[in-house]
Design a protein that fits this description.
It comes from Bifidobacterium ramosum. InterPro entries: GP_PDE_dom, PLC-like_Pdiesterase_TIM-brl. One of its GO terms (biological process) is lipid metabolic process. The chain is of the alpha/beta class. 37% of the residues lie in helices and 15% in strands. The strands form two sheets. The protein has an eight-stranded parallel barrel with strand order 1-2-6-7-8-9-10-11, surrounded by five helices. A two-stranded antiparallel ribbon has the order 4-5. Helix 3 packs across helix 4 and helix 4 packs parallel to helix 7. The chain starts with a helix and ends in a 7-residue tail after the last strand.
Length: 342
């Protein structure tokens, strides 16, 4: 084979690969958006799991700015009618009604996570179990909503705590504690509290993003039914491409987003998760926006998706320094642990 033929084959192969990548990553078309009257991701700062005084992001790494953030979360929660200055434990733990009320009071949009209880109720909680947020190792899917109402989130912890202290097994799990506390809420109650005042980014959360079976379908159907009855701005997102595809097929008028991050081939999810990080599964869902780990905004896949019309949303920015590093690569930001300037 001559050098010219080899070079030509290399160029053709590169062009084909580039074309395939662009086709895979391509977001929903402008014509489709117009036809279905799809709104854009509302302009707002989005408070990660609500404006919270205990939970995600409140670690030593971000202590320089998190004190002001925690104080603001408590002020806004009390302004909204939750707790009072005598409460020395958490007033507005992550993904609680108080945290969502605080965010709405402050004028921030909200990012939150949906899961199902044992009895099929749509609740708002991030982790598959309650160990980090309540010191209780039991799985959410193994508990009824009634049981969840008796488990306090960060119930014995001071404001600014990132991980809840262990809950003794000797605690009476059949009786709610006395005094002020917050618990895992129903999604319907969250919608009632927010009441359309600020936009929502609603994440459909699953244990395994490579699986999409009857329980995953149930969450999609029940979560969407609540959103259809809701009078307020929202968009949806998921790490699971099939969940985003569900909205493509069933609710094309809803703005939908693909969550992802720059995974490694040798990571927990292996090749499939690495490929998802390259956004190659976007052909299933044709998302309107890409919600990507803030550190990966300058990656070729995010830049390409943005160039082709996708809105880029960062998660989760936790300091002014991180915001400065990624601001040029994103159109919207999900934040926590610091108070962003307007």
């Amino acid at each position: 084979m001559s050098s010219n033929t080899f070079l030509r084959n290399v160029l053709i192969g590169g062009a084909v690969a580039a074309g395939a990548a662009a086709w895979a990553i391509k977001p929903r078309s402008f014509t489709d958006k117009q036809h279905n009257y799809v709104p854009a991701v509302p302009h707002a700062w989005y408070a990660h799991r609500g404006l919270h005084d205990a939970g995600s992001g409140l670690t030593e790494q971000y202590a320089i700015e998190s004190g002001e953030y925690v104080a603001r979360a408590r002020r806004m929660a009390m302004k909204a009618g939750y707790g009072d200055p005598t409460v020395t434990t958490s007033i507005a733990p992550e993904n609680s009604l108080a945290a969502f009320a605080a965010a709405a009071e402050a004028g921030y949009g909200i990012e939150l996570d949906l899961q199902l209880t044992k009895d099929g109720q749509v609740i708002v909680v991030h982790d598959p179990d309650l160990k980090r947020v309540a010191g209780d190792p039991r799985r959410v899917a193994d508990l009824t909503y009634d049981e969840l109402t008796r488990i306090p989130l960060f119930g014995n912890d001071a404001p600014g705590t990132a991980v809840a202290s262990p809950r003794p097994e000797s605690d009476d799990r059949g009786t709610a504690p006395t005094g002020y506390f917050q618990h895992v809420p129903l999604f319907s109650d969250v919608l009632r509290v927010v009441a359309g005042r600020v936009p929502l980014i609603v994440e459909y959360k699953f244990d395994d993003n490579a699986v999409f079976g009857p329980r995953e379908e149930e969450l999609m159907e029940k979560g969407d039914a609540l959103l259809q009855a809701y009078d307020g701005p929202y968009v949806i997102e998921s790490f699971n491409p099939r969940a985003v595809e569900w909205y493509k097929e069933h609710r094309p008028e809803v703005c939908r987003g693909q969550l992802s991050w720059p995974a490694k081939v040798d990571g927990k999810g292996g090749v499939a998760e690495w490929a998802a990080g390259l956004l190659v599964f976007d052909f299933l869902s044709r998302p309107d926006f890409v919600a990507y780990d803030w550190s990966g905004g300058n990656s070729p896949q995010v830049r390409l998706a943005r160039a082709m019309g996708a809105t880029a949303v960062s998660w989760t920015v936790r300091s002014s320094d991180e915001l400065a590093q990624c601001d040029d690569w994103f159109d919207r930001h999900i934040f926590e642990a610091f108070v962003p300037e307007r």
